[in-house]
Amino acid sequence: MEAVHPIQIQPVVQSRIAEVDFNNIPFGRVFSDHMLVADYRDGQWQVPTIQPYGRISLEPSMTALHYGQSIFEGLKAYKAPNGRPVLFRPEANFERMNASAERLCMPTIPREIFLDGLRELIRLDHNWIPSNEGSSLYIRPFYFATDEYVGIKASDNYKFIIFTCPVGAYYPKPVGLMTTSQYVRAFPGGTGEAKSAGNYAGSLLGAREAKKAGFDNVLWLDGIDGRSVEECGTMNVWFIIDGVAVTPELSGTILQGTTRKAAMVILQSMGIEVQERRINIDEVWQAHLDGKLQEVFGTGTAATIAQVDRLGHDGTVETIKGLPDELILPPVNEAKVGPALLERLNGIRTGKVEDPYGWVEYL
User: Fold this and answer.
1) Contacts of 296 by beta carbon, 8 Å cutoff, 6+ apart
2) Which residues of 148-161 are buried (b: 16+ CB within 10 A; e: fewer)?
3) Which of 45-59, 121-135, 137-151, 314-328 has the lowest mean pLDDT?
4) d(CA 145, CA 43)
5) Among 68, 231, 257, 270, which is most exposed with the fewest C-beta within 10 angstroms?
6) pTM value surpassing 0.90
């Protein structure tokens, strides 16, 4: 498809790829050669460019730094067995980013800039896609306000960038999650379902305290009565209770995960009943005590399918008063649903098995 906004390409003189040890890639710290940059000014999008990855110049008065008009996305590219680059559901990320943009009063991004620009960027940097098992090329589109003005209003100018980085596993081992009664991630009517930078900034203190307590992240509860499970700081969450896969319903306060949606479809194709509903923390604890909580795992672009081996609370959650502070879940090596889901999902998105859903795109 011919782009309405022709993309200008300024390739690097010398690639940095020879400097990278693809057998030892720290997550999110090694960046590919190029990035796509597109500016919005004078009421319209300007011609996007693909240029060498590098620093950008910002004014101290830039709106995004003061008032938080900043959103982002995350998706991945893989290498198919025949060596071709594969994208997994890029349309879903495009749609979700524009939903976030509308919530933060930002102009929507044209399809030809986001999707065509993404495709050209991956074609140019396809050699950066790792071939090691469990590795991928993480893609980070982000979009922020650039007015040079200290005043509370929607910006008139914006910058959209996509860069990529080769990555290994985000969670190389099972994770422990802890609830908190002191902090809340989102409230109804807020920006909880938008992938905005501020949502993540507000979650950092709770996550740090969870780590101090020996856990990996927070299992967030709702902001009204602190009973309903919402999501983890890095992924949507799933519970296998008596053979049924239960995940919190989309209520406007949790992220509409693309991996979450794919997991729902795959689990149903595996003959597993999926319930998308309100689930409170008491039910989870009681299911464990009754021997019915068989697995807990998270789904997300970075995390993929991450098994959970421990659940804890901070000792002051009134809704589970009198119950154990910590649950040691059944051994991860006995888990069946999460690993089967991961195998099926990985097979589809890497082109190793047939994709009956039209989720993958070969470049």
Assistant:
1) 177, 237, 238, 239, 240, 307, 308, 311, 329
2) ebeeeeebebbbbb
3) 314-328
4) 13
5) 270
6) yes
